[in-house]
Design brief:
It is a single chain. The N and C termini lie far apart (56 Å). By secondary structure, the protein is mainly α. It is 77% helix and 0% strand. It is globular. It has a domain of 92 residues. Helix 1 packs antiparallel against helix 2, helix 5 runs parallel beside helix 7 and helix 6 packs antiparallel against helix 7. The longest helix has 32 residues.
Length: 166
């Protein structure tokens, strides 16, 4: 089995298993972990042809676009100011963390900015790669963020609800 075929096979198996076991973000997370483990075990790292990457990015964009429908429009009007304020705060905090990581010599600027700016694992990794960053590091940083939030948020929400909010 060549390295790309092996990566695709084990990524598909890992994604399917994580999805079946109801791991948060299972399909993406499982595929990412299984493919990374496969790549770690190979003497030569598997890589995806650029044309295939473009097709996959278009498919991800379509999948995200399909989640929108007209029922979101009234909600969007009322939530948009808060969403923009939250996004600005996240970008500012991500920039400050990235600046610290660059100043400490831990990461290059592109990898640091895309690693600390919140977003989806797959999208942020793909865009970081396109901009010259290290996609694997960005994916790892987002994976740690997502798993930490998925573990902490339910506990925090339960405690907050029990105490009646702030």
């Amino acid at each position: 089995m060549n390295s790309l075929a092996g990566a695709i096979f084990w990524g598909a198996v890992g994604g399917w298993l994580a999805w079946r076991w109801h791991v948060p973000g299972g399909a993406v997370v499982g595929a990412m972990l299984a493919t990374a483990v496969y790549n770690f075990s190979q003497p030569v790292r598997a890589t995806m042809p650029v044309s295939a990457e473009v097709v996959i990015q278009i498919a991800v964009g379509i999948l995200i676009g399909l989640s929108a429908d007209r029922s979101l429009l009234p909600l969007l009007r009322s939530v948009l100011p808060l969403a923009l304020l939250g996004a600005a705060g996240f970008v500012l905090f991500g920039f400050l963390m990235a600046a610290l990581a660059v100043r400490m010599g831990w990461l290059d600027p592109v990898t640091a900015l895309f690693g600390f700016t919140p977003g989806g694992i797959s999208v942020m990794s793909l865009v970081a790669d396109e901009e010259g960053g290290k996609a694997a590091i960005v994916a790892t940083m987002h994976f740690v963020r997502v798993v930490t939030i998925m573990l902490a948020a339910p506990t925090i929400a339960r405690l907050w609800a029990q105490r009646g909010g702030p």
